[in-house]
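Appendix B, example 12.
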Amino acid sequence: MEVFDSASGTWSTLGALQPPLAGTSPAVTAAALLPSGRLLVIEAPSAAARTVSEAFDVGAGAAAPAGALRGTHLGGIAAGLRDGRTLVVGGSGSPEVYVGTW
């Protein structure tokens, strides 16, 4: 995981996401900031595989599994809602809402 500093024009490494599922190369398809300050990262190994998520703690530089989504969301987007939930749409899955669990 990296962050871009627009003032200096440089990238810095923050930490790593969890290892990918066996035999897959997940693509980060979307991310949204959670009210806790963690970053919810949505990963889709392929259009046919179930989408998974991780909560990345920027301060600690570490990620923890946040659960599997019901559908596949390769190419989807995530948006933080005012009430603290996160909406994930797109891909071949129905819209889903993250409220700390799926």
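The two ends are 23 Å apart (CA to CA). The CA atoms of residues 2 and 67 lie 22 Å apart.
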